[in-house]
Amino acid sequence: MINYPIKRKAQVKTTNYANLGMTLESDIEASNTYYLNHGIAVIHKKPTPIQVVSVSYPARNKAKITEAYYKTPSTTDFNGVFEGHYIDFDAKETNSKTSMPLKNVHPHQIDHLRAVSKQKGIAFLIVHFKVYNEYFLLPAQILFEYWDEQHTEKGRKSIPYETFKEKAFLIPFGFQPRLDYLKIIKQSFL
Amino acid sequence: MINYPIKRKAQVKTTNYANLGMTLESDIEASNTYYLNHGIAVIHKKPTPIQVVSVSYPARNKAKITEAYYKTPSTTDFNGVFEGHYIDFDAKETNSKTSMPLKNVHPHQIDHLRAVSKQKGIAFLIVHFKVYNEYFLLPAQILFEYWDEQHTEKGRKSIPYETFKEKAFLIPFGFQPRLDYLKIIKQSFL
């Protein structure tokens, strides 16, 4: 028996914004699939909202969309249920060594996470600091503090990496699930 | 001050399947908007999943999707959080006077609702009997019973209207919210 080494594709650098966060997103989706298949939780990524303008029917029962546009989502990307608890979060990546810029978060996402928190849902971000290859679970409450302060005198336009080290939770990257963020929810939030 | 009467557009009959359930869906969405605006719950309809095949960029930063197809959703249409509880449901309409055909429900929706129930989420259908103009909240448990029995000897391919009368919950149609399904959840599920 010979174990052939697995060749990894060379990583392609791209400036296409649609691909930003692709890896983080697929790591989270793989973790969610693991959770689902093991009866641990039911968490899905919401489809990207698309405004359909025209549809043609080249074949019976087969609708072909010929003109459509991406819409701004009104919520976060991920939600679901874990042992009776409502889970809601978004995934963010940053190339910065020092902080996560608040402009990575849309105002409607803040509104949504606040509404979820008021309904006693568990709201957070998963933030990937690419230069350190570290993944953090940032409770929404800390995000709100920085968001609300950004326009005040002592406010800043980003959340420092130091804050992540001190107040967020490091998610170890593993084999399965790749990002066991629910372990942190269980240990520290429930 | 003159109050001009509001003219309602004549209702257009259509066989376009994309419009089936349009009214029920918008009634539920209006109810969800009411819940959101009044801080009662955060429940959204998930976007329809679409497989994008080609995108053109006719203008800077403006992506135009030129070829795409509808995908089969892997979950139900609606989910969210109500006072800490995870809520998950789908909306179904039927023209039948006697029953709701089980073929209105996709097998993957059954799988999803089962997984949600196991995670202690609140899972149900909202079913509109159009001929009676009645709306029912059908607990997923009853749906599962009929689903599992359909291939047995005494099984049937639909849930009788009588079962709705006896075991489901009638949702009164009102002004705001139009369909106060969370009132039933609060009274009978929590």
Would you mind describing this structure in some detail?
The structure is a homodimer of 190-residue chains. Chain A is an alpha+beta fold and 190 residues long. Chain A has a single domain (17-188), classed as Trna Endonuclease, Chain: A, domain 1. Chain A contains five helices and ten strands, in the order αββββββαββαβαβα. In chain A, α2 (107-118) crosses α3 (140-149). Residues 5-21 of chain A have low confidence and may be disordered. The A-B interface holds A 18, 36, 39, 41-42, 44, 46-50, 52, 62-71, 73-75, 79-86, 88, 112, 115-116, 118-121 and B 18, 36, 39, 41-42, 44, 46-50, 52, 62-71, 73-75, 79-86, 88, 112, 115-116, 118-121.
Fill in the keyword field for this structure.
homodimer, 190 residues, alpha+beta, Trna Endonuclease, Chain: A, domain 1, two-stranded antiparallel ribbon, 5 helices, 10 strands, globular
In short:
The structure is a homodimer of 190-residue chains. The first copy, chain A, is α+β, with helices and mostly antiparallel strands and 190 residues long. The first copy, chain A, contains 5 helices and 10 strands, in the order αββββββαββαβαβα.
